[in-house]
Structure formats: C-alpha cells, structure tokens
Amino acid sequence: MSVPSLASSLSDSVTAAAAPLGLVDFAPQVRRSEHADFQADGMLAAARTLRRRPRDVAAEVVAALPAGNLVAAARVAGPGFVNLELTDRALLAQLADRLGDPRLGVGTAEADVTTVIDYSQPNIAKEMHVGHLRSTIIGDSLVRILEHLGGTVVRRNHIGDWGTQFGMLIQYRFEHPEPPATTGTATMRRLAALYRQARAAFDSDPAFAERARRRVVALQGGDPATLSAWRDIVAESTRYFTDVYDRLGVRLTGADAVGESAYNAALPDVAAELAQRGVAAVSDGALCVFFDDVRGPDGTPTPLIVRKRDGGFGYAATDLAALRQRVGDLHADRLLYVVDARQALHFRMVFDTARRAGWLPPTVPAVHVAFGTVLGPDGRPFKTRAGDTVRLVDLLTEAVDRARDVVAAKNPDLAGAALDQRARQVGIGAVKYADLATGRTRDYTYDPDRMLALAGNTGVYLQYAHARIRSILAKATGVEPVVDAEVALEPAERALILDLDAFADTLTEVVAGFEPHRLCGYLYRLAQTFTTFYERCPVLRADEPIRGNRLALCRLTGDTLRTGLELLGIEAPDQL
Ligand code: ARG
C-alpha cells in the first residue's frame, strides 16, 4: 500500500470533523496555502446548503478537528476557509513512511483502465519533423505516467503508410533502381530524395504521371511486384524511425507500429455501417457525414468525407476504422490522440461520427491531446533557411553536440565514451524537457541555447539538482538516513517535506488533463525548495538525529526527482 498524501489525510480529518453538520456530500478541497501549511475550503458551499453563515460553519469544523498527531493548529480564515498547520511530528512521520515506500506515495488509480494512445505517427518516405517529435515526446511521457499508475497502455504508432503518393514513389523507383543504403539515416536521405524526384517527375511529365496513376491501381489491386516494392519502402522508413526512437530513448517498438494501411480491409465495412445507420449519406457522389456546427466561411456545411467520389477512402475513413477497432477489439476505456492542434476539427468530426455510429460509448472518452507548433528563431513554424523541414536527426545531433560542450566545461576530466553518454543524456533530456515543460497547446520557440542553460526551468538544471543530491548521499556512505520524528523542524525542512508530499497528487493532475508540464513545474519547484533547504540547513555537518532527518530529506528528494524525470522520459544519471 502506498502512503496517502498529507493533503488527503487532512481532507479525511476535515470531512470527519464536518460529519456532525449532517451533510451527505461534503467534499473539502485541501490545498497548499501561503498563509498556512494547507487551506481547506468547502465550508462556503456547505453553509449555502445549510443556510448558515460560512464562518460559523468553519468555526464548527475547527472546533471538531481533533488536536493531536496531525493538526497542530486550525483557524477560520477569510470568508469561511480553514487554515491548517501540521505538527512537525506528522511531517516527519510522513517523511519516514515515504522513504520506505518504493512508489513514493503514488497509487494505482489506472489499474483497471486500458488506454489506447495514438502518437508519433510519422509518414513513410518523408523526413520526421518537429511536429512528430512533439507527438513522440508527449506521447511517451503519457505512456510512462499511465503505466506507472498501474494502467494498461496500448501504443499505436499510426504511421502514414498508404496513399496515392506511393504510386509515383514505386513507379519512379522501378524506373531508376538503386542498391539499398546501409544505415537508417542514409536510407532516409535517399527516400526523401526519391520523394522529391518522383514528385518533380509527376508534376512535369504527364506520361510519368499516367504511369504513376496506373501504379496506384496496381498497388490497390494487390499486384505482387508493386506490393513488394511498397513493403520495401515501408520497411526502409520504419528502420529509420526506429533509429530515431532509439536515439530519443522512447518506448516505441516495431510492434506498436500499426500504419494506416492496416485498416484498409475494414474500410468498406466502416462505410457500409455508417450508411446503414444513417450517420453518413451520399452527397455529390461522396459518402459524407454532416454536422450542425461545422460550416465553412460561406455557411455551407463542411462534411467529413468517408468515401470519395472516385470510391477511394482517405484519412478520415482510416481513423474511423482504427477507432472502431480500438474500442471494439482492443477494449479501450479511453482513447488518446497526441496530434498537432491544427487537426482539432478532424478529430471533433471523427469522434462525433463514432459516437453517432455507436462505436464510441458515452463511457469511453476520446481525447485529442493537441499540441502547439514549434517555432523557429523568426517566430514562424520551424523550417530550414531554404524553407524545408528541419531534419529531426540533425536537430538531435546538434543538441547532443552542444550538451557535450556544457558537460565538458563542468567536467574537464570526462572524455571518450563516458563523455558521449553524458552528452546524450543531457542533450536528449534538454530537447524533451523544453518540449514537455511548455503547456502543451502553446507554441514554443526552439532555442538550443536556452534549453541547455544550467539555471532556470531546464532539463539540465534538474539533472544537476539530482546529481548534486546523489553526491551528498555518496559522501554519507554507511550512514542510513533514519528519521527521528521527535525533532523540531526548520521552516525550510517543512517546506521541503510538504513539496515532496505533493508528488502523487501532481501525477493525478497530470493525468486529469494529460498535461506533462504540470510534472515539470512540480519538479522545478521541488529542486528550488531543495536548494533553499540545502543553503539553510547543513546536512553532513549536522549532529544526529538532525543529520539522519536531513539525509532522509536528501534521499527522498533525489528519488522523487529521478522518478519524476523518468516519467518524462529523461535520464537522471548519478553524476554529471
Ligand atoms: N501522419 C499524420 C501526420 O503526419 C498524423 C496522424 C495522426 N494520427 C491519426 N490517428 N490521425 O500529420
């Protein structure tokens, strides 16, 4: 069993104290406060129900709170809040319990929940761009957090592996054969070149365009040579994506890649079911779903097109088939789609269609976990000077190179493989943290200098904070941190215990809105609170039993920082 947070124990006490009021659904919110350790509200709502004065209700709750182990003082504050101070003993007992709890107080709220999460989703034969980076990083962090809370998570990398563009790619490759490239990156370069050349030929040479169109028909018809060429292109790209995932250290494998093509066989049935249930209707030759509230600028309704006039299926039909399968076969209790905010309308229409079709029961939430755009130094969507997509591998290489300089400056003795490893941990961590620390729907500017700064809300700052704590602990080898609950606490110690206590509740908040930046903010504050503590309270030079308590604080802070960083997908080495 994991240890409940002080906030939740307090909430229980306040609820018990309010029992004589005779309210059935009294639910106090207990939060940290600037005026006391915690503040409880809920008395205002209670007073309304009881038609009594809020401060009188609050006073009654205060009077009924048992003085003793947990609460040192309770006061009525403001219009009817209750300010609560905890005893030093309760704080230290919490520290001791937490120290012995490998889960750091985190429960298993997700234990019976299956989440299917769609993220990363690069496109075959195209370079991954920063949008795919965001999706991959945010998705990976959510996967880690949900799994840590005991949830079952099914990862779906919805790779763009189907579409008419494959006609020109395959045709061009047949006409210009090349031996295979050796590395993933070289393969990708070649595929990207193939894409450009095929596109140029398609646009400028009508005869080639015609051959490419026939090739699409051959692909859709399952012509063996064409299919095998398609498979090669998919495999080459996938190998490259896997390289990128390995470099990023994200938990996505080949088994998680279920591309758009995987749903091809289901598309006719999806269309038939929608038509039969009256959700979709033929308009202008296309099978469409209409929405009361989705209209174009001129007021005409904008449909979701399930089947095009030419009989072909597109992006929307595939998403509908995938959704139906994720709920129907994978038994998802929750669907997440980590996709660029610019696709909001698409997902609104897909989810609405699926609800109407009965594929998405009211009990299953479907969430577009939208994210903003990565901007370049000019404040516009991040592109190279030539206006091309910034290659993800170049970006990661640059981050790791710069991190190497930062690490080497701090550790002149570090060299070779050890330096490389730290550079990777710091560089990749910096990229991930910069992405995750911004509220996910906001745009942010990609700035390698800022994300590798040693001070401020950066991954490096947190990695250093963690490593510093490990080195303090290493100097105290042989001394087990033993908590003595009878010692009086300094304010900086109290503040640190209270911050540590909020870890589990922070993860609950992260999951409530699928917002990893809340975890980043928490870890940053924790590191700052630790710094204040360390400045004011000597650890190794303190006498027992104070030293034992302070070492315990160091240990728990180190463990919380490490676990928190791991949940963001960021490594926390013991030394930096
Ligand atoms: N491959 C698409 C793109 O690069 C994103 C796919 C998002 N996922 C989905 N189920 N539609 O824009």
Automatic annotation (TrEMBL):
It is found in: Cytoplasm. It catalyses: tRNA(Arg) + L-arginine + ATP = L-arginyl-tRNA(Arg) + AMP + diphosphate. GO terms for cellular component: cytoplasm. One of its GO terms (molecular function) is ATP binding. Monomer. This is Arginine--tRNA ligase. Its EC number is 6.1.1.19. Its main location: cytoplasm. The keyword Coiled coil does not apply. Keywords: Aminoacyl-tRNA synthetase, ATP-binding, Cytoplasm, Ligase, Nucleotide-binding, Protein biosynthesis. It holds the Pfam family tRNA-synt_1d. A motif ('HIGH' region) lies at residues 122-132. CDD domains: Anticodon_Ia_Arg (cd07956), ArgRS_core (cd00671). Residues 4-86 form the Arginyl tRNA synthetase N-terminal domain. InterPro entries: aa-tRNA-synth_I_CS, Arg-tRNA-ligase, Arg-tRNA-synth_N, Arg-tRNA-synth_N_sf, ArgRS_core, DALR_anticod-bd, Rossmann-like_a/b/a_fold, tRNAsynth_Ia_anticodon-bd. One of its GO terms (biological process) is arginyl-tRNA aminoacylation. It comes from the Bacteria. Gene3D superfamilies: Arginyl tRNA synthetase N-terminal domain, HUPs, Isoleucyl-tRNA Synthetase, Domain 1.
